[in-house]
UniProtKB/TrEMBL annotation:
Domain TonB-dependent receptor plug: residue ranges: 124-229
Signal recorded as keyword: no
Residue span, TonB-dependent receptor-like beta-barrel domain: 276-767
UniProt GO BP: siderophore transmembrane transport
Native organism: Maribellus comscasis
Keywords, in A-Z order: Cell outer membrane, Membrane, Receptor, TonB box, Transmembrane, Transmembrane beta strand, Transport
Protein name: TonB-dependent receptor
Native organism taxonomy: Bacteria, Pseudomonadati, Bacteroidota, Bacteroidia, Marinilabiliales
Localization terms from the record: Cell outer membrane
GO MF annotations, alphabetized: siderophore uptake transmembrane transporter activity
Length: 805
């Protein structure tokens, strides 16, 4: 299959390159784009059904040269503006002038998205709700990486789960990270191992936008899209441009226990270049970051880890002909993180140490071809990501706590979109495709001398999938029906029970009814599944009470399946002088044979592990997401999102060793959470924004120690830690307090001509220093007992210079 697809790409490419070498037509179109009497710079101007396109310059003018001869549709589109088009007939050696007058779309109702159905779709016409997160939102909320930016989306919450290594995960609609499919440019190569820390490694300057689809998307993107999908769309060159952004932050300003703040410095560089004929272009980006560790309670152990991060990436394209495009994007991320105590020492010389060295390399090659005048298109792609990780998860100077992990994820596929002016009852679009995803995971335990002593995991997972989706769009009703069939093989050479295979049929359906152009109702259903494999996230080893706590699968673990239902109503209305977009979305997901982490005692000394089992009964997640966007005036914008939900198992699950340590609730899942952003831009130069993030109370397991399990000097140390209140005795289910985190940002722009500017900005994150006040202390602490905001009060200062803000 791989050879056939690659051979097809090669043959088609050669044919197109040969055709592209024909004599130029000198059929040109020039013009300008205006809105409310003012020229609009840097907006997209494209030819429908082709790969031809350009952007307006700093004065709002454009030119398209050497176009195909005949009738063409020219389309103007851009973030914050409604798409519009005009039809023109081009002729040999003739230049035509076409001017556009466009309308603002400040709420981005009609922005183009691709995650809804693997095809470019007007967001307002998509049969599922798609939230598009722009770079402006991430900049206004002082998000330095996408993990922070995703907090400002309904139903999403990024949380920190470990004091020693800073492990974070994204929860969508109350479900843990592995239930959400992370895509890079619509490709499922962002492995779970990269996802453990990877969302923090992707800088916002790398991203064109983030697209979020809540609810099952497994029919198009694979089994793990149970809670939903996050698609990271990286930037692509559109014009010659550059940008430099330097920022310095002081963490822990005004903290009671810490006299010296931790420093966090970051430098972002971006540049793009494109040829005069617009056929070839390239974009590069990089990030350098260095963050000190932070100790919130003065016990000598970190609550925020030390980070050293270097990210570099590129995106290049070439258009062999007017209907074809070859794209290649890649990235290389290097990261070092260290937490615990005695950070200047070797890991095995510290009392507690978690240290990770990551090297992540990824690439995606794709080929797009419009096959006819009806805008039918075939896309083929090959993607891969390699993760190399050196680790140390150890306590009490353990010499054998080093590890080496290799992870290679690859994806190969093709899909074809074709259109029909009328199929059954309405115009339609059909997409059919096939893809193959392979994931290899090898984890070895090392001694201090670097020699391998134990192979923990050597797993191969291969999933071959095929899918079809049909979408009808009419004046009143849009319908989407999809079906996917996956067959997976799992082979674990280190486990007798680690081999399994199965075929899974995954349907999806969505309907949108338009009461009026401003009032739309959507309802949907999707099935999903998770295979009984060893998950990359299991390689995050938690340290609890100076003991390594690992996760492993039970021998009889079987596939988990889900049935997800969503319903929403979306209204866009003008109230007085304000423009408003209101969304209310209900969701219900039922899990059959859900995975649950069961407390598994290892010995009589209090050592334990988590064993992944299938819960005796099912589980469910249900709730409602509410979102409101409003432009109160031309200068004031606000956005508010809130989630109310319940996440429960249908029977009690053991989270600890004691008989009373059981609960039906999902751990670490609040029933209420939300956010708000307010932006005020009174002039072209000055901008200020206020951001609020709310996390409600939730249940968090808290593990302590039993003095009866110790003797001698160790018993004395344990008893002293309990008496001092550094740790607890036994175990308890804590109902953690809620938090409201407020951030404030000011920026001022200085313009140099039409295209270049300099921006000075300053901000405060977590103004009121809302942090957890009951961290454990010392060597015997429960590092997983962390539930508060990810960082204390932090002051940032920065300067940007360039023309791609």
């Amino acid at each position: 299959m791989k050879k056939i697809i690659l051979l097809t790409i090669f043959i088609v490419s050669v044919n197109l390159i040969t055709r592209a070498q024909k004599k130029t037509t000198d059929a040109n179109v020039i013009g300008d784009v205006q809105c409310d009497g003012e020229h609009v710079p840097f907006i997209n101007v494209t030819i429908d059904g082709t790969t031809i396109g350009t952007t307006t310059d700093g004065t709002g003018h454009y030119q398209l040269i050497n176009l195909p001869v005949g009738e063409l549709t020219i389309r103007v589109s851009g973030m914050g503006y409604k798409s519009t088009s005009k039809t023109v007939t081009t002729e040999l050696d003739k230049t035509i002038e076409i001017k556009f007058d466009i309308e603002k779309d400040v709420l981005n109702i009609e922005s183009v998205v691709v995650t809804a159905d693997r095809n470019q779709t007007n967001r307002a016409e998509a049969p599922v709700v798609v939230t598009s997160i722009s770079p402006d939102l991430m900049a206004n909320t002082q998000s330095v990486n996408i993990a922070e930016g995703l907090d400002f989306t309904p139903g999403l919450r990024t949380e920190t789960n470990c004091q020693n290594c800073g492990f974070t995960q994204l929860r969508m609609n109350g479900m843990e990270g592995p239930y959400t499919q992370i895509l890079m440019n619509s490709r499922p190569v962002f492995s779970g191992l990269a996802g453990v820390y990877g969302l923090e490694l992707i800088p916002t300057n790398m991203v064109e936008r983030l697209e979020v689809v809540r609810g099952g998307g497994s029919a198009l993107f694979g089994g793990n899209a149970i809670a939903g999908t996050v698609n990271i769309i990286t930037k692509e060159p559109a014009r010659n441009s550059f940008n430099i952004d330097g920022r310095i932050g002081a963490i822990g300003i005004g903290g009671e226990e810490v006299s010296t703040p931790a420093l966090d410095g970051q430098l972002n560089l971006n540049a793009s270049v494109i040829t005069d004929d617009r056929k070839t272009g390239g974009y590069i980006y990089s990030m350098l970051r260095n963050r000190d560790s932070y100790d919130a309670n003065g016990d000598g152990y970190s609550e925020m880890v030390k980070l050293e991060n270097t990210t570099f990436g590129f995106n290049v394209f070439h258009k062999p002909g007017s209907k074809s495009k070859i794209s290649l994007d890649g990235y290389r991320i290097s990261e070092f993180r260290r937490g615990g105590n005695k950070l200047a020492y070797l890991p095995h010389e510290a009392d507690i140490a978690e240290q990770l060295d990551h090297l992540i390399t990824g690439a995606n090659l794709s080929f797009d071809l419009f096959t006819n005048g009806s805008y039918d298109k075939i896309t083929t792609y090959a993607s891969a990501q390699r993760v190399s990780r050196g680790s140390y998860y150890g306590a009490q100077r353990d010499l054998d706590a080093y590890g080496d992990t290799k992870n290679l994820t690859s994806s190969l596929g093709a899909h074809y979109n074709f259109h029909s002016d009328m199929f059954l009852f309405a115009p339609s679009t059909t997409i059919i495709g096939i893809d193959n995803t392979n994931d290899y995971l090898h984890d070895v335990k090392l001694g201090a001398n670097g020699d391998a002593n134990t192979t923990l995991i050597k797993q191969y997972v291969n999933t071959l999938g095929s899918f079809v989706q049909h979408d009808w769009k009419s004046e009143k009703v849009n319908v989407s029906l999809g079906l996917r069939y996956d067959y997976y093989w799992i082979k674990d050479k280190e486990s007798e029970g680690g081999h399994s295979s199965n075929g899974v049929l995954v349907p999806r359906a969505g309907i949108m009814y338009k009461f009026t152009p401003e009032l739309r109702f959507r309802v949907g259903y999707a099935k999903g599944y998770r295979a009984p494999q060893v998950f990359n996230e299991d390689l995050h080893i938690e340290l609890v009470n100076a003991t390594r706590v690992e996760t492993f699968n039970s021998d009889d673990l079987k596939q988990e399946t889900s049935n997800a239902f969503t319903a929403s109503i979306n209204s866009v209305a003008s109230i007085g002088n304000t423009l408003n977009d209101f969304l209310i979305e209900g969701f219900y997901t039922h899990l059959k044979d859900p995975f649950s982490n069961e407390y598994y005692p290892l010995d009589d000394e209090g050592n334990f592990a988590y064993m992944r089992v299938n819960a005796d009964d099912g589980a469910y997640v249900t709730g409602v997401n509410i979102e409101w966007k409003s432009f109160l005036t031309d200068e004031i914008e606000t956005q508010i999102g809130f989630t109310l939900q319940t996440s429960k198992y249908e029977s009690v699950q053991a989270w600890g060793d004691e008989e009373t340590s059981v609960s039906k609730d999902f751990m670490r899942t609040p029933n209420q959470y939300g956010y708000a952003t307010f932006t005020w831009k009174p002039t072209h130069h000055f901008n200020t924004s206020l951001s609020l993030n709310y996390t409600g109370s939730m249940y968090v397991p808290h593990f302590g120690l039993n003095p009866d399990d110790y003797e001698g000097d160790e018993l004395t140390a344990v008893q002293e830690a309990i008496d001092n209140g550094d740790i607890i005795e036994g175990e308890a289910l804590k109902k953690a307090d809620g938090f409201i985190v407020a951030d404030l940002l000011f920026s001022y722009d200085i313009h140099f001509g039409e295209e270049t500017e300099m921006q000075f900005y300053a901000g405060v994150k977590n103004i009121f220093n809302q942090i957890q006040n009951d961290y454990d202390k010392g060597m015997y602490r429960d590092a997983g007992y962390i539930y508060g905001p990810s960082s204390p009060r932090t002051i940032n200062f920065g300067i940007k210079f360039g023309n791609i803000f």
